[in-house]
């Protein structure tokens, strides 16, 4: 269980007035050191507990692996939809609201018994006193998903095993691993080349280590779609495809995205490039050949461009053919969790900006509406987050104090700039800047002269933030050109 007393003292002191004397600055430095020491001690304690049995009545914390954030109950704020409930969020550091008693739902277990896979449990916040609850209210921004909050009700949660802790080894390929697949002769640094490996199991919630005889799926992180194969009727000549096709009129295939992982066309097998046992584990960084299961074909590269409408095509089709070519091997390269979290942030931000731009283009939001103030506040906060994201390589998506327009940023990581382009954030920024001044048939929402009016100050601030994003997205490249 992580402790937060030193971190809490530092958070409280850092939020006080910035007009502090030298003594306060020294105290703040000491508190920051104590908070960092407490974090390291928490990490050490957590690593010691890996592999130990969880017992009923113990205090546990729930860490969301993909975001690396703790499930946290905020007893001071109401839930977004169910107003009589407490708000539940994901928090980067966690706090006392991240502590939960794990208790048996049925009386066949008692305090002190071991928690068994398949058990139904209740998760009771230590400081809130109201158990974790799955609401019947559906989230507006995530159709099909329900709100999770904390309220005094009889809610149970089932313990389902995702992966045995013994299989969670850093040096092997396993379900949930983030990778980029690249040909042995090329390199790939685009966020569009990031995939999540899924090991096919009887239980769809279960994952585990990948063996050479395992069946795998590959989920595209940027779109959430799965890699699959279908017959390719492309008649353009390609030397590699002609070589690997086999007998004349033998069908060839191309890799395509499909929306669901339960499609049998999304299942692949790995073939090692060296002699090894079929039941041995797949090393995390490996060269492999890919076999598509239901067509019994081998994945290979081609020279057929798929972005033919672009001035300079850079993407080629990947195909499948019946003959295996030894040199058609792909490197499975591990990707850091932070890179995936950056992609998630950029992806979510792009969707939000797209919705904002759409409302402005349709003229469905007006400065005269009561909801306009709430709308501009939301846009402002989102743009500030994007500025901190691209300008500060240590930024993790959490709230940050200060006016980004008054700060100087040194771009150390160009990958985040690339994400702004690849995930179409810059495209949406341009739309936001243009939409209010376009005529939708009944005149434009604003004119350039209106921005000088104090009534439109919030939107003027939004425009300033947009231009700040645009400047930061290319600041390193401009410097390099000079």
UniProtKB/TrEMBL annotation:
Biological processes annotated in GO: release of sequestered calcium ion into cytosol
Pfam family for this entry, one: RYDR_ITPR
Source organism superkingdom: Eukaryota
Membrane topology label: Multi-pass membrane protein
Keyword Transmembrane helix: no
Free-text note regarding domains: The receptor contains a calcium channel in its C-terminal extremity. Its large N-terminal cytoplasmic region has the ligand-binding site in the N-terminus and modulatory sites in the middle portion immediately upstream of the channel region.
Taxonomic lineage: Eukaryota, Metazoa, Spiralia, Lophotrochozoa, Bryozoa
InterPro entries: Ins145_P3_rcpt (IPR014821), InsP3_rcpt (IPR000493), MIR_dom_sf (IPR036300), MIR_motif (IPR016093), RIH_dom (IPR000699), Ryanodine_IP3_receptor (IPR015925), RyR/IP3R_RIH_dom_sf (IPR035910)
Primary role: Receptor for inositol 1,4,5-trisphosphate, a second messenger that mediates the release of intracellular calcium.
Coiled-coil positions: none
Span of domain MIR: 51-105
UniProt-recorded name of the protein: Inositol 1,4,5-trisphosphate receptor
Keyword annotations of the record: Calcium, Calcium channel, Calcium transport, Endoplasmic reticulum, Ion channel, Ion transport, Ligand-gated ion channel, Membrane, Receptor, Repeat, Transport
A GO cellular component entry from the record: secretory granule membrane
GO molecular function: calcium ion binding; inositol 1,4,5 trisphosphate binding; inositol 1,4,5-trisphosphate-gated calcium channel activity; phosphatidylinositol binding
Gene3D superfamilies, alphabetized: 2.80.10.50, IP3 receptor type 1 binding core, RIH domain
UniProt-listed SUPFAM superfamilies: IP3 receptor type 1 binding core, domain 2, MIR domain
Keyword Thylakoid applies: no
Family statement: Belongs to the InsP3 receptor family.
Assembly notes: Homotetramer.
CDD domains: beta-trefoil_MIR_ITPR
Location relative to the cell: Endoplasmic reticulum membrane
